[in-house]
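Before a colleague's protein record goes any further, I have to sign it off. I want your independent view on whether this chain really folds as the tokens say. The record follows directly below this note.
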Amino acid sequence: KINYIIKPFDSIIIERSVYLTSLHYYIMTIENTQNRRVIIITGVNGDLGREYAARLENQGNLYGISRKPKQSAANYKHICADLLNPMQVQEAFGKIEPTHEIIYLHLVGKFKFEDDKHPIEDSNRDGLDDEIYATNFTTFLNVLPHLKKFLDSNPKTKLKVVGIGSVSDLYKIPFWSSFSASKEELRKAFRRLYGEKDYHGRVSTLMVNVSTVSGSQLDLERPFISKAYCLNPKEVVDLSIDYILDNKLSSLELSLVKPHPSFSEEDFLSIALIRDRWYKDMYGPDFQRIKGGI
């Protein structure tokens, strides 16, 4: 008598021993992948950080880094560190055990609206807000030597670096020029790392450019905005996760947008209209008074 299992839809008949062997191999493959992969999320307490952590907790040995204690129920090893403090960065990465595959998600960085009512802090007179540049780009410069150290310590190790940008970076909007310029420096750093001959064939990069994303950060920045055409963190993760876990060698940019009906209007990117929209989103009924300085 043949011992068999009927698969879904009664379409496949397979001997039980073959089925169990295949299932065991499949489970072992998943476990081996998880054991050899390390995933590091910086900014893990943010809206996107928490969502990525929840999705990636079973995809490898997951580490989350933030300045404050853990704020997620996801299963990962939490490390408190300020990425603007090189000593804390060194200590944090010393707690991470690298493997043959490392995925690093750089999700830190502040945003700031800039105009005459919202002046920048520019101590070095480079035209960029000090805090915006530091949190978005200097943080990565502080992490980079430790990522390279992982690569140098094992010639078989492969690294994927993931960052978050804005789809508006293409348009050089003056009201967040410090943010866009910082993200452009991050893109350049990604491309340089991808192209370094010492790591040829071992480094991939991914820049995920998003339109407006709902969450606690948006609630603080633009409390009066309609969420109808905002991405939410789950959508960002859903649309990007396959690219993050893909182990093909590449240097990619991915743009995620929830289309707004006004995108097609010729004056949608009018500087004056952008300013009006943002003041409405930031200040609600008082936007005219605040914008006009009355």
